[in-house]
Design brief:
The chain is an alpha+beta fold and 172 residues long. The protein folds into two domains: 4-76, Double Stranded RNA Binding Domain (2-Layer Sandwich); 79-163, 2-Layer Sandwich (Ribosomal Protein S5, domain 2). Helix content is 30%, strand content 34%. The chain is built from five helices and eight strands, in the order E-E-E-H-E-E-E-E-H-E-H-H-H. It has helices at 60-73, 114-123, 138-151, 155-162, 166-171; strands at residues 16-29, 32-44, 49-57, 76-77, 90-94, 97-103, 110-111, 128-134. The chain has a four-stranded antiparallel beta sheet with strand order 1-2-3-4. Strand 2 and strand 3 form a beta hairpin. Helix 2 packs parallel to helix 3 (138-151). 31% of the residues are buried.
Length: 172
């Protein structure tokens, strides 16, 4: 799960919203079927802050609004390099969804599909190679991608944790 050290207050950032999936859900009752909608939403500032949420309502617009509110409650700060890529390769799982992220050269773009792409673009990652393995369920792929971004450590954080200078990390 996401660690609390990466959490961000939603009042601090200007966010863009992306709807990943809208699903129509039917409940069978005595008189027929009752339809409602579930929306998976990703929000981010394009500068290392991203969040995901789920909203359910009888109308699509209300479901999206609830999803955005939920996503704003789950904002996390992630490590993105100056070049707009991830610092190192990472592999995470959430449920049956497995996500692999690799750094890419400048100009590569976001090579990822579907739900993973929405999370990476919202986080502000510009060059990355991503592969979704296992389940393609958008709920779990979004959660696995956010988790993959949360476990990434930048050089500055590693240097602080080890109690050494940043030059010692790069020079060996």
């Amino acid at each position: 799960m996401q660690s609390n050290k990466n959490r961000v207050k939603n009042s601090e950032v200007d966010l863009t919203e992306t709807v990943v999936k809208i699903q129509r859900v039917a409940k069978v009752v005595k008189g027929g079927r009752r339809f409602s909608f579930a929306a998976i939403v990703v929000v981010g500032d394009g500068n290392g802050t991203v969040g995901h949420g789920l909203g359910k309502a009888k109308e699509v617009v209300d479901a999206i609004a609830k999803g955005v509110d939920d996503a704003k409650k789950n904002l996390v700060k992630v490590s993105v390099t100056k070049n707009g890529t991830v610092p190192h390769e990472t592999f995470t799982k959430f449920g049956a969804a497995k996500v692999l992220l690799k750094p890419a050269a400048p100009g590569t773009g976001v090579l990822a599909g579907g739900a993973m792409r929405a999370v990476l673009v919202a986080a502000g990652v510009k060059d990355v190679i991503g592969k979704s393995l296992g389940s393609s369920n958008p709920h779990n792929v979004v959660k696995a991608t956010v988790e993959a971004l949360c476990v990434i450590r930048d050089a500055y954080g590693v240097a602080q944790q080890r109690g050494v200078n940043l030059e010692k990390i790069f020079n060996g």
